[in-house]
Structure formats: structure tokens, C-alpha cells
Amino acid sequence: MIREIKTQLPQEGTGTAGESVPECNSGSPIVSGGDKFLIDGDALCHGSRHVSPVSPNGKKRAKECQIATMNVCGGMDSKIDEVCEMMSERRIDVLGVSETKKKGCSITTYDRYTGYWSGVNDSERSSQGVGVILSERMNASVKEFEFVSPRLLWIRLKVGLTRIFLLCAYAPDMSKPPKVREDFWDSVREIMTKCKENERIILIGDFNGWVGIRRDGYERNLGMFGDKRVNENGESLLEVCLERNLVVTNTLFSHKLIHMYTWQRQTERSMIDFVIVDERLRAKVKDTRVYRGTNVGTDHFLRDLIEYLPKCLKKVEKSL
Fold first, then answer.
1. How far is it between the farthest Cα atoms of the chain?
2. 233 within 8 A of 206, measured Cβ to Cβ
3. What is the distance of C-alpha 86 from the center of its chain?
4. 263: which residues sit within 8 A by CB, 6+ positions away?
């Protein structure tokens, strides 16, 4: 049984974990993507602060964290049960969702999961919409967040000793006017300026862009695997990656085509949903791939990333 508790948000669209949040409105861009990577906080941990990998009940603490992204193609309220069940089955800790078509900004609790939602104003027609769903242990790590627009939402996390700046986005597709797309990428750059030097950026979502594979100028941002096509959205995304030293993890691993393409309709298919990480996390990424059979009524497939977390998690799931 899913219990739903709605919390109002601050007018500015920002908040700090633990504070009450009044009503707010937003209105503009979104994105989706997924992958697996290692966050090694213990490497920075003094010996006197070492935490045993074994919990008090004798069972091992969690070492992996899965981060995923999915375009749900609307109707989020009717799909939330299925999405949470999928997260539980696949042990997903962070799920970025795009095209939710939810209105307003809110924080909603579903049993052991918490959703952060940024949508259009209540007076507008349902469209766009972006959100992040966190497991119980990851939600305990939230320090700050902002509902920027119906296309952009960021959350600041501290997982062990690792500080993460998570940005979930839903980019306007190539059919939208150039000005709309330019404004979106300008907003992404503006948000990136909020990231502190000691924070690691994780960028997830549906970018409606083709980034290609390794080529001149982007050797540090792209791997050798993926779709070779490139479009304007993809170029804009790569410019952001170049400016902020980010890596498109989708292109780092060789997989079958069914585990590479994130969108398919009849004979058309694309890789447009990405999990992108700070270059300082690159060595910790273990895998990035698409999972089939978890489309919850959408033509986008779940893209998943696994990362290893520091043993010094503030909170370990009761089920472990």
C-alpha cells in the first residue's frame, strides 16, 4: 500500500533538507539518463573514523548504489506504484524521471521513497515536468535542492564524505524553436555555477540529443561506444561537458544494441537519455546500460548506473 504525503515548497523554488516548504511555481526545461559508478569516500577517511563494513546485525552494509533515469511519457501519478516497485526490485537509489506532466512543485513520500517534483504552473496545460525519486537512505543525505523549472531540478547530497551536485533535466527536442533550446542550455550553464569546487556533478535525464562517440576535441568527454550520430542538442550538451569536465558514461561501455539505445519507436531508435558524471568519478563508474522490460508505458527504456558508496553511510536500509 503506498502512502502519499504532499509537502508544499518555497516560493523561490529552493529549500534545505529538514525545513518546511511553502507553495511555489516553476516553468521551463528537463532531462533523463542512467549509469553505475564508484564513490570512494573511505579513501579520504582517517583511520580513526573507519566504519566497519558489517552492520550491527551481522549483515554487510551496502556497497553499491544504482542511479537511473527514465522518460515516463506522462501520467506519473498513475505510474508511481509501478515505478517504486521497479526501483525496489532493481535496488535503485536515485531515479531521474522526465516528461512527468505533473503540475506545480512538491515533495511527495511513497512508503520508503521520496519524490521531488518540478512542473508547470497549476494554471497551465500539463506538459514537460521533471523529478527525482530517492530511496530512504539517499533522501537522508539531501542537503539542499531547487525546483528551477519544469525542465530542470537540482539536489545537493552528501553521501559519506562525498559531496554530490545532482542535476536532472529534460531538454526540449529538436522540433522546438532554436531560442527555446538556447534558453534551456543557458539555464543549464547558470545552474552549473552553483556547483562548489568540492562537489562532484552527476547529470541525468532525457537530453533529446545525439552526442556521437570519441572524436577530436572531446577525447576526455566521450568513450568509443554508442550511436555515431550528432545533432545540435548533442553538441550543446558536449559543450557543457567540455566546460565542466564531465564524462558521458553511456559511451564508455560496449553493450548489445538493445542495451545501448534508450528510445525506440517502430524502426526508429536513439540514444538520448544519459548519465553524465564528473571526470573525478570516471574511474569509479562500473557500468552504464539500458534495462528492457521496465518501460512503464513509455517508449523510453530505463538507463541504469551502479556506483559504490562509502561505507560510512549515514543511514543503511533496514532491509540490509
1. 58
2. no
3. 16
4. 71, 269, 270, 271, 272, 273, 299, 300, 301
Q: Domains, the chain, ranges and CATH? A: 4-41+62-308 (3.60.10.10)
CB 203 within 8 A of CB 33: yes
* pLDDT tens, the chain, 320 aa long: 333 333 333 334 455 554 434 344 443 332 333 333 333 333 222 323 333 344 445 444 445 788 999 998 888 888 899 999 989 988 899 999 999 999 999 999 999 999 999 999 999 998 999 999 999 999 999 999 999 999 999 999 998 888 999 999 999 999 999 999 999 999 999 999 999 999 999 999 999 999 999 889 999 999 999 889 999 999 999 999 999 999 999 999 988 888 788 877 778 888 889 999 999 999 888 888 887 665 555 545 454 555 544 433 333 333 33
CB 222, CB 238: distance < 8 Å:
yes
User: In the β-sheet with 273-278, what is the strand arrangement from edge to edge?
Assistant: 14-16, 142-149, 152-159, 162-170, 199-206, 273-278, 246-248
Give the predicted TM-score (pTM) of the model: 0.76
Among candidate residues 167, 164, 133, 165, the one with its CA nearest the CA of residue 147: 167
- One-character DSSP codes across 155-210: EEEEETTEEEEEEEEE---TTS-HHHHHHHHHHHHHHHTTS-TTEEEEEEEE----
Residues 218, 248 contacting (CB under 8 angstroms): no
Measured torsion, CA atoms of residues 233, 238, 240, 243, in degrees rounded to the nearest 10: -160
Q: What are phi and psi of 76, to 5 degrees?
A: -60, -40
The C-alpha cell at 25 is 511555481
